[in-house]
Amino acid sequence: MDRLIVVLATGFYSGKIPFAPGTWGSAFALIPWYFCRGLSLANYLIVLGALFVVGFLTAGSAEKIFDKPDPGSIVIDEIMGMFVALTLAPNHPVAWLLGFILFRIFDVWKPFPVSWLDTHLHGGIGIMMDDVMAGIYALICLQLIWLVIGRFF
Question: b/e map of 90-116 (b: 16 or more CB within 10 Å)?
């Protein structure tokens, strides 16, 4: 069971890539997201909910397996954040790349309340929630930016 938890929590080991595991995990998220992008909003929200529950459970368990608080190799939170950021994303590769970049900016920069969630919540919920909030910021920015520049693409 520990092996399955580690596989899921590390984004099929994308989080084990030594340099910038969060970026690799975010990039990996584009693969399953690509196959979910055509879902109805209701079904997409169900996927988001299921991903959050799986992330909450596996991140908290993997943290105990690794015996380290919020290790960088746990990237299921980045996967969740990318799914949030790309909710209702326009069907264009430029929009997907922009969503990826925006999410990484907010995940690294950690503006309030992302930073507060990162430092005040612990365990599975803490691992997941700061990336959910970073994803919400990226989602809002992507939609606003696309509203302005989308006509050029």
Answer: beeeebbebbbebbbebbeebeeebee
